[in-house]
Design goal:
This protein is mainly beta. Helices cover about 15% and strands about 40% of the residues. The longest helix has 22 residues, at about 1-25. The termini are far apart.
């Protein structure tokens, strides 16, 4: 009987191992909120194709909160850092478009941080002077690196038309983040997941 019990216990361990290993896999990040992207409005799509010429239909997918759309080639809020550059201070740079709908004409400020305790390297930053320019040749994507002005807040000026801003997300580490868009009478939260081993 003890042999049978031992065999059953071993079988349970074998069955549970893959699940527990998957739970510890940093590439299979699970965040409190991982919404599905929605297709950007027609007025934004030409800018998305120009910014992500290799993205095809997927380049039109955006994370949305209120009037704010974040296009970063994400899937269920998770972004891939493959091919991303570094800013020389240990932060990854990830290209993104921010679009604000005309129905909210006031100025918007974007900020972001990693979920959990406030510690060093948990604040998300943005480039305030655009993003890298990329070209496509066949299956190769080439983005010309350059220096960026980084800030903890990205301000989108007021306007009554679509406002589309090119930026670089300055990622201090992997994990679950939230981007907050705030303005007069507005507070919209966009979840963002950055999978992979933590380098901090």
């Amino acid at each position: 009987m003890s042999v049978v019990r031992l065999a059953c216990a071993l079988a349970v361990v074998v069955v549970l191992l893959p699940a527990s290993a998957a739970a510890r896999n940093p590439w299979q990040l699970r965040c409190p909120s991982m919404p599905r992207e929605q297709r950007a409005p027609p007025a934004v799509r030409p800018a998305a194709h120009a910014f992500f010429p290799w993205g095809g239909r997927g380049g039109e997918d955006a994370l949305r909160a209120g009037p704010v759309y974040l296009l970063a080639l994400s899937y269920r809020s998770a972004i891939s850092r493959d091919g991303d550059d570094s800013d020389g201070a240990g932060n990854d740079l990830h290209r993104a478009l921010v679009a604000v709908a005309p129905w909210y004409p006031k100025q918007i400020t974007l900020t972001g941080r990693r979920l959990g305790r406030r510690r060093p390297h948990t604040t998300l930053a943005f480039s305030t002077n655009g993003a890298t320019d990329c070209t496509v040749s066949g299956v190769d994507v080439s983005c010309r690196p350059r220096l960026f002005h980084e800030a903890r807040a990205l301000r989108v000026p007021a306007g009554r038309r679509w406002r589309i801003v090119r930026t670089m997300l300055v990622l201090p580490r992997t994990g679950c983040f939230r981007v907050v868009a705030s303005g007069r009478g507005l507070r919209a939260v966009i979840p963002l997941a950055v999978p992979g081993p933590d380098w901090r």
